Structures are given as structure tokens and as C-alpha cells.
Amino acid sequence: MPTPDASQFTQMKKFQAIQARIPGISDKINTHLSQPVPTASGLPDFLPSFSNKITSSTPNYVPINIVTGRQTKPKVPGGNVNGETGGDAVICGVIDITDIATYDVVNSRYELNGNYTITACQILSIAVGITLQINGGQTLTNNGTINNSGTLRNAGTLRNNGIFNNNGTLNNNLDVFNNNTLNNNGTFNNNPLGNIFNNSPGRFNNISILKNTGNSYNDLGATINNSGFIYTYGGGKTYNDSTLNNTGTISTSTGSPCGVGTLTNNGTITGTGTQNTVCPP
Predict the structure, then answer these.
(1) Domain span at residue 200?
(2) CA nearest neighbour of 123 among 79, 88, 91
């Protein structure tokens, strides 16, 4: 319901003051310091009543404070950090390793602070000489970008699994160690100085794209499950000393236009997937 403006409110108060005068006792005395009160015989009906208010049978708004059901208006500030809604807003851009991990002085490495998700708009850089470790029972999920120039280690044991999910982009320029479960559902770029060590009992599940121009080792007791694309080219080398289950495509370039790649198999390659010499698109 609309409310009266200031002039209407003032008019009402003046009228009530005039009506409250007692004739002959409290008459208004006009002086040069007094503001004359205009003659008033009645108060205009400027306040809307229930009889003249405007209503609509089809309101054009969405109720957000309903008693039952979930409110449609999100908490402010919004965002989704580590699976939580509301609270602090997501900080986009470069994030510091100290935001997600604590330094272990004894072992000279950063250890992940529990489960953590790097959002799509965030970038984590692991500098030269720095190690980030995922311990058993922890999950690191990358939906953004990780630039690794140090060491990224997925540790844990058979009974206490560590999980690394790459759903975004991982640019590896030095070492990635996987002793548990590594799921690549994004783009994994193993660059010329990069090394991938899939150690026993590690399981490297490549669902999307692995581009290897460095070195990739599938050690004894470890497993690679490929249902996506593995490209080895540009001087890259892939060493399989264990089990490689291929239901996707393994491409090992023989030269032009992307440079020679090498696949050395001392283990077992199984599956109905494709092996060819195609360069990455």
C-alpha cells in the first residue's frame, strides 16, 4: 500500500492541531514569528483504504520468504566454495598454495587441508621447489587451472585412498606422482620437462585428453585405464611396465607435423581401443 508524502503528512498534522483548539483559549495567534494556518474545514482523503487500493489477481513477483519449501533467493554473497553455498564469495584469479594447504616443516612440503575444490575461475601455481601432497582420505578437485613447476603428489594407501580429480586444465612442467586414484576428465598437458609417475598401486583413469611431450611412466603394479585420448608426440615418451587398459585411443606420432613420440611397452596393453599415429588436434 502506498504511503503519503511529506507534504500530505504535514497537512494532516496542521489540520489535527486546528481541530484540537479550544475556542477562546487556544486560538492561534498570528504574529510575525508565526506561520498562518490556512482555513480548514476537513481533511482530504489522501490515504488509500482497503476499498480503493489497487490489487491484482496475478501478482508479477516471486515470493521468496515463503514458509514452506526452499527460498528462491540465494544467500548473499553467493558462490560455491568447497561444496558450500553462501558464506564468503569465490575469489577468482590466482590463489596461493597457503590458501589450501599447510606447510609440514619436518617433511618440507605442503599438505592439503582436507577436501578442496579449485573453482573454474581459479588458478593454482605450484612453484619450483614446492611440493603439494594429497594425503590418504583427501580429495583435491581441479575445475580451474593448475600450473605445476614443482611436485604434485597424490599419496595415501590401499586402505586410505587419496583422490585427485582433474576436470579443468593441468599444465605439468616437472613431477606428478600418483600412488592412489587420479581421474582426468579435463586436459592434462605433460610438457617437455614434465614427468608422470603412476606408482603401485596407482590407478590413472584417463577419461578425456592426455597430451604427453615429456615422460610418462606406468610402473609395475600400477594401472592406466584409458577411455579417452592419450597423445604421445613432440619428443614425448610413454613407458608401460604394468597394465594399460585401452578402450579409447592411444596415438603415438611418427613425426610430421607434431614430432615423434615413443611408446615402450614392457607390460600388457589390453582392450578394444584404437592405436594409431595421429597428432593431437
Answers:
(1) 90-276
(2) 91
User: Is residue 1 in some structural domain?
Assistant: no
Q: Which three cell numbers stand for residue 226?
A: 584409458
- The strand pair at 93-95 and 122-126 is best described as parallel
Q: Is the peptide bond before 59 cis (omega within 30 degrees of 0)?
A: no
- CA 193-161-148 angle, 5° bins: 20
What is the grid cell recorded at 19? 481541530
Rounded to an integer, what distance in angstroms lies between the CA atom of residue 163 and that of residue 222? 15
Residue 9: DSSP 8-state: H
Residue whose C-alpha is closest to residue 270's, from 236, 251, 242: 242
Is pLDDT above 50 for 81? no
What is the per-residue pLDDT across 21-33, written as a single tens digit (0 to 9) for each? 655 555 555 544 5
The grid coordinates of residue 281 equal 588436434
Q: Above 80 in pLDDT, residue 146?
A: yes
DSSP 87-120: SSPP--EEE-GGGTEEEETTTTEEEE-SSEEE-T
How many structural domains are present in the chain? 1
CB burial class (10 A; 0-12, 13-18, 19+) of residue 82? middle
Residue type at position 87: G
The whole-angstrom separation of Cα 129 and Cα 146 is 16
CA-based end-to-end distance of the chain: 64
Tally the residues of the chain. 281
